[in-house]
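Morning F.,

Quick status update on the modeling queue. The single chain you submitted on Monday has been processed. Sequence for confirmation:
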Amino acid sequence: MQNARDRLLLATAELLEAGGSVSTRAVCDRAGVQAPTLYHHFGSKQGLIDAVANHGFTQYTAIENSGDPLHDLREGWDKHVRFGLEHPSFYGLLYGRAKPGKPCAVTAPAHAALRERFTAAAVRGLLKVPADDAAEQVLAANVGITLTLISQPEPDFGLSGRVREAALAGVLHTQTADAAATRASAALTLRALVGDDPGDLTPGERALLDELLTRLAR
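Structure tokens below.
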């Protein structure tokens, strides 16, 4: 038998998926509880909605490391798109209520995971740009194509694949690079390695090396 907290989560999820009202009264009526029970478990209606969004979001953020950063990035992109299409209300809740200067706390772990994947790519010498920049660029494209496909009567997965490859090509070396690109890639690789294991470098030496490697990476 489900407890009150679980019933509130389920009721909110069902209302969101159905596109219905997510008022406190509607949620409580569906869950069979009184409003004080909602506030006891979640503090506010927004706290409840955040908990539901977080639960839905974590269903697709965990991707096992295959040892191939490019494969993992492609799989992560496709999983992101599938989640958005399967749960458009959840997805709209996550990415449709952006506030100026306030990153979404619910999606922050997924963003961090994407940066980690690009850091792994940097260690392999695959990055054209710093891992943080690569993550921001690819995430922006991933969210954009997902919202586009949600709005289409017949989602064009071929379009998603083409946008994915274009986004990755913008931040990754997938073929033999010229001398300047090779130098930049080497600098980014060393920067990632030192960031992961600075050895005996002092903080001042690390700062100086980071500055030099950043200039070389440009």
